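hi support,

uploading two proteins for the ticket. first:
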Amino acid sequence: MGLKQCKMEIVELNCRFCNSSLKHIFADLGKTPLANSYLNSDNLEKPETFYPLKAYVCENCFLVQTDEFEKPQNIFEEYAYHSSFSKTWIHHIQEFVMNTIKRFKLDEKNHVIEIASNDGYMLQFFKNNGIPVLGIEPAKNIAKIAEEKGIPTISKFFGEQTASEVISVKQKADILIAFNVLPHVPNLLDFVKGLKKLLNDNGVLIIQFSAYLSQMIEKTEFDMIYHEHFSYFSLFTLQKIFSHCDLDIFDVEEFTIHGGSLRLFIKHKNNQTISLKTSVSKQLKLEEKFGIPKLITYENYQDHIINIKQNIWTFFKQIKNESKTIVGYGAPAKANTLLNYCGIGTDFLDYTVDLDPYKQGLFLPGTGIPIFSPEKISETNPDYVVILAWNLKDEIIEQLQFIRNWGGKFIVLIPEVEIIS
């Protein structure tokens, strides 16, 4: 591996929503490369840039956030995540689309726009039901895939300016969707103002995000923290953000997918045709009981992270002392946070595999662990398979049942080390 190059840490930070000074560290994960900066064989031995990875909590609005070391244009214009490769996620999306069509009585007269539409994984299901769609996706390599599927896609970063451009040539959105994009946005207010501008007067904005803060704290899902995730949200904080932009959250749903996700249904504040559901006040009460609006809730998170790191390190060392072989399944961003923070490299993990052909043949940033196709596992018969994409644990175990033929076992590291025979 090449030598580390560390970017200087910026000490003075202000909250990206309320501009309060950030004084309280939520998590300190040392120095890591960008989680999606996968290496190829040509740059494997070249120096990598490592950045401080710290998350802070604002004492005023309780937004948890990381610093912005790289501009989104340098991270997302060529992106390594394709939504279509998880059966679990696609099933979740199909169910969402059908429920949305039914609930809001959508037909060919309506217009659905998705922000960060990826490879068209969602919009294809609306289109198949005869509903006009438009995707807005900053990653040019992924937008091209969506276009090839017949999904009209604008390859631009979203904000107020892009919203104005879309409105000038297209109609506004009756249903505006933004799934798993809000944490990736450094300029929150510009993004939300863009959503407001693009949403029809009686339209519905639907936002879903993973790394839901209460679940992330409760299960110590610290690997969800990486530089490409600029913010980590609670309903408490999001209500403040959307209200500031004259938008109302009128319904909310919580899901276990991706380690804990929250789905918000949002309308214009002056839209009186949609009533507020009791789900919002119930979820806020749950967050209040959990302690979301109290600094003490965030103070001991680092201690839990350190404890998990020690347990992971001890476990890997013990397995290697027994001369057992360990490989990984998955090459998600969260794995790069975990492996770099815990010091797990090729000395412990021989390789990892991933279904996404885009990642196969590359190497994980920081650790240099090679990425192969899943067929590699049946060729090498490892003793243990570490499920790095733990949010897809059930899907992966079902896919790799055959490792039990030679006595292979699965390992999950989050929220705690667990061996699954």
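and the second one:
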Amino acid sequence: MGIIKLNFDASLNLSDKSSVSGIIARNSLGHIKAACAFAHTPIDNVFVAEAMACADAINFAIDLGFRSIQMEGDSLTVIKKLVSPSIDRSIISPIILDIKSKLGFFEKVTFSHVRRQGNQAAHALAKESLHLPLPRFWNEAAPSAVESIALRDIM
């Protein structure tokens, strides 16, 4: 109870070197508390796009005042770097350092890797938001196609 699960994902558009982060925050019953989508440019690397989506999710959780969070994403590389005590020297190291610097805000934070199937709502939000003016925020809601996917997750 009291833990908010944030699923994050990125959609990368190589033709215009942009990405969109999709983030869905749910309570312990699986109900959507909030959702958002952010655009980033120039980005032409999938690992950078996924790391930016995670950073966006952390910032979103801070902005909403969530204190106990469970972060879930389908990028195993990003999750491994976040839970590793080693210094990261990859292209995403500045993003990983930024995320780690903000973890003190929270009472509890966990990072979990989920397969794409377990991250479908965040993936759909990122994909659908490629064609929307961004940034975009939803309170206790998400686009209808995303809500139906999130509802299936509960069942």
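thanks. also noticed: The first strand starts at residue 4 and ends at 13.
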